[in-house]
Amino acid sequence: MPRLLSVDFEVFGRVQGVFFRKYTQQAARRLGVVGWCRNTPRDTVEGQAQAAAPVLAEMKRWLREVGSPQSKIERAEFRNEREVAELDYQGFTVKH
Known about the structure:
- The chain has one domain (4-80): 2-Layer Sandwich (Alpha-Beta Plaits).
- It is α+β, with helices and mostly antiparallel strands.
- A hairpin with a 5-residue loop joins strand 2 (34-39) and strand 3 (45-52).
- 26% of the residues lie in helices and 43% in strands.
- It is globular, with a radius of gyration of 12 Å.
- The N and C termini lie far apart (34 Å).
- It has a five-stranded mixed β-sheet, covered by helices on one side.
């Protein structure tokens, strides 16, 4: 069984007002990633993602390189990556 990982993320650039959270949720659901995301007062999008290691790697690539069609990603930062015994979430939600 693949290792389960959890990581906190923050995406910088033009990521608010361009449906970035909605597309992040869609990508996470398509890949099988659980967690959440929200806008921040710093005009970034932050969140937490959890999945099997290879799936999480693909989600991180999506956050760094793809995003929503109108977004312009400057960079994505990942912190606190760690192995977890089980997933903490049932699905992927957008927090307001």
